[in-house]
Amino acid sequence: MSIASLKDLYIDELGDLYDAEAQTIRALARLSEAARAPELKEALSRHCDESRLHLERLQLIFTHWGTKIPLRRCAGVAGIVQEADERVTEPATADTRDAAIIGAAQRIEHYEIAAYGCARSYARRLNRPDEARLLQETVDEERRADHRLTEIAEAHVNDDARLETDFANAESRRRLRYVALDERLSRDSLEVRNDDDERLGTLDGLVVDATSGAPRYVVVDADGLFSWRRSLLPMTIVRFDRSARLLRVPLDKDIASRYPAFDGDEFDRMDADAVRQYEARLLGFFPKEDAALRVPKHGEGELPEWMVQSAGLTGTAVDLFADPSLRRREDEAPTPPHGEKLR
């Protein structure tokens, strides 16, 4: 098709958008099927329905002009869709895949927002107000869909993907390591209770990042309260009750009773895949939203405040829990200049 006027360009752009919407409908269906988060599935499915309405609007505009829909391929969306398909089929944790799906879907949205915005401007310039109104409705719906995807990503998907990278990324060199309580801590075990003051057990140890020493899970000894003896609780839900001098977790006792058992020796023998499967089973008991926003955050490699206060610990997590081979020995410490002593 030769482009000799703004009208020609307008019709050509509408044809490009028509093919873009057809590709988008197919892509959104695949992305929705691949997504795990229910709200993400729902958002993609809803926008897939909206995209069908967008096609109907474009068909109506072509009817107004009394012209056939141009047979053309939208190369821009085709490239985005191809990248999306490749991303979705790559090995990844479920939350990381959801984050990738959101990114792919938003790339499509941004392309269409820009393309529909141009077409709307052309319609106004060509004195086609009804068509401009239809196109603006589509722009608004594309923007709302993009905004909704951002909300889902920022609500939990991106954070969940980040955490799963820390814990279970197949390509990560970081390893989790079990540290028994008596290996580093000399104080008596802390009692662990839930918010209903039901006893769940006592603090038995930690599962830490072997590189940074950052604690990831607390190990709870149930003392015969449940069928298992030990289990893990994510560090993010544990807080220190100063008045009662014990650990609190927002967890029902009946849920805790169904936890997978933890064996330190067996855990240390697990390969990366086995650890991921174990964690996936464990984390399935926890809602995706943060169950304990009250829990203070701590930096990578830092000890949580409750651990310092309850056990009288000093220093950083890497000093206490990191792989000994990664800590510098005293005799390897740098020599101060001019014979001065290090303070």
Give the biggest beta sheet: 7 strands, mixed
Bulk shape? elongated
Q: Radius of gyration from the CA trace? A: 28 Å
In terms of DSSP E residues, the strand content is 5-15%
Q: Which structural class do the helices and strands define?
A: alpha+beta
Overall average residue pLDDT: 77
Quaternary structure type: single chain
Report the top-level CATH class of the largest domain.
Mainly Alpha
How many domains, in number, for the residues?
2
SS elements, strand count: 7
N-to-C span: 79 Å
Helix run count:
11
- Which H/E pattern describes the elements? HHHHHEHEEEEEEHHHHH
What is the architecture of the largest domain at the second tier of CATH?
Up-down Bundle
> Considering DSSP H and I runs of 4 or more, what fraction of the residues is helical?
40-55%
Look up the CATH topology of the largest domain. Answer: Ferritin
Q: By CATH's scheme, which homologous superfamily of the largest domain applies? A: Ferritin, core subunit, four-helix bundle
The unreliable regions are 164-174, 288-301, 312-318, 325-343
Index terms:
343 residues, alpha+beta, SH3 type barrels, 2 domains, 7-stranded mixed β-sheet, 11 helices, 7 strands, disordered C terminus
How would you explain this protein's 3D organization?
This protein is of the alpha+beta class and 343 residues long. The protein has two domains: 6-168, Ferritin, core subunit, four-helix bundle (Ferritin), CATH 1.20.1260.10; 177-329, SH3 type barrels. It is 53% helix and 11% strand. Strand 6 (239-241) and strand 7 form a beta hairpin. Helix 1 (6-34) packs antiparallel against helix 2 (38-65), helix 1 runs parallel beside helix 3 (75-89) and helix 3 (75-89) runs antiparallel to helix 4. The longest helix has 40 residues, at 129-168. The chain is elongated, with a radius of gyration of 28 Å. Mean pLDDT is 77; it is low at 164-174, 288-301, 312-318 and 325-343.
